[in-house]
Amino acid sequence: MKKLIVNIKQLIQIEEKPGRMKSGKEMSKLETINNAYLIINDDKIHDFGPMEELTDTSADETIDAEGSMVMPAFCDPHTHIVFPETREIEYIDKIKGLSYEEIAKRGGGILNSAQKIIEKSEDELFESANKRLKEMASYGTGAVEIKSGYGLTTEGELKMLRVIKRLKESSPLTIKANFLGAHAVPPEYKENQKEYVDLIINEMIPAVAKENLADYIDVFCDRGFFTVEETERILEAGAHYGLVPKIHANELDYSGGIQVGVKHNALSVDHLEYTGGEEINALKDSDTMPTLLPGASFFLELVYAPARKMIDAGLPVAMASDFNPGSSPSGNMQFILSLGSIKYKMLPEEAINATTINSAYAMGVEKELGTISKGKTANLIITKEIPNYEFLPYYYGANKVKHTIIKGEIESTNN
Ligand code: NIG
Ligand code: FE
Question: Most buried in the list 52, 53, 159, 367, measured by CB within 10 Å?
Answer without folding.
Answer: 159
